[in-house]
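We close this part of the discussion by returning to an individual protein. In the encoding step, the backbone of a single protein was reduced to a row of integers, each denoting a local shape. The sequence in question and its structure tokens are set out directly beneath this paragraph.
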Amino acid sequence: MVLEKVKEMLADKLGMSPDEITEDAKFVDLGLDSLDIAEMLMNTEDAFGVSVEPDASLTTVGALVEKIESLMGDQ
């Protein structure tokens, strides 16, 4: 569920199909800059009810999904 929602959020931002976004996709390869990533992290709070702090490990879609799922499990 988290992966699908993150892919939808990215697809809306990038004007592409969620099917084109893989778990291994790097944000930089998708064309996101640091401001885009910060905006996306803020949007995760609205979408999932968790606050994701930016850090160097969040470079791929899969890493973000794992972080969100981890934070949701901690609630």
